[in-house]
Amino acid sequence: MEIKVLESGKTLLKMELVGKSHTLANAMVKELWNDSEVLVAGYNLKHPQVNHAVLILETKKKDPKKVLIDAMKRMDKNYQEFSTKFKKIAK
Q: What crossing angle do the helices spanning 64-89 and 22-32 adopt, rounded to 10°?
């Protein structure tokens, strides 16, 4: 996956997820909204046939890159927990 940073500031991050559409972007946005520091979290697709989601994140004061990294860590933890539990019942 290629990530293109379109805009980066003290409290704003706008980036393009090349080759990704709703699946990843929606999961990221949902997790970002669990952080009280987040003012804006969303994404859009410029065209429905082109898989390049543009993620927009705005925070109150914190570095949006740090907020995004923390959200990805929580997503990874949830994935690992689900994977472990599913493996136990899938035997």
A: 110
3-state secondary structure of 3: strand
pLDDT digit string (tens) for 16-67?
999 888 899 999 999 999 999 999 999 999 887 778 999 999 999 999 999 9
Which residues form the domain of 30?
Answer: 2-89
**Strand 2-8 relative to strand 52-59: parallel, antiparallel, unpaired?**
unpaired
pTM summary value: 0.89
CA distance 11 to 61: 6
Domain count, the chain: 1
Query: Could you tell me the CATH number of the domain that includes residue 29?
Result: 3.30.1360.10
- Strands 12-18 and 38-45: what pairing? unpaired
Residue-wise pLDDT tens digits, 80-91: 999 999 999 997
